Amino acid sequence: MADIIDSLYEEHKEPDDESEIIVIPDLVDTCPVLHDFM
Q1: What tens digit of pLDDT does each residue of 2-35 get?
Q2: What is the pTM of this model?
Q3: Do the beta carbons of residue 28 and residue 35 sit within 8 Å?
Q4: Distance between CA 29 and CA 31 in Å, rounded?
Q5: Residue 29 to residues 3, 5, 26, 34: CA-CA distances in angstroms?
Q6: Count of the separate structural domains present in the chain
């Protein structure tokens, strides 16, 4: 699991617009599975 998260951060690029930044509530809405880890 940790290696998956690491790979996501390695590919992370700084967004040009702040609206592109993914925040935790957005993740909970788009990825219900993540809610189990909260």
Answers
A1: 787 777 666 656 656 666 666 677 666 666 665 5
A2: 0.23
A3: yes
A4: 6
A5: 23, 19, 5, 9
A6: 1
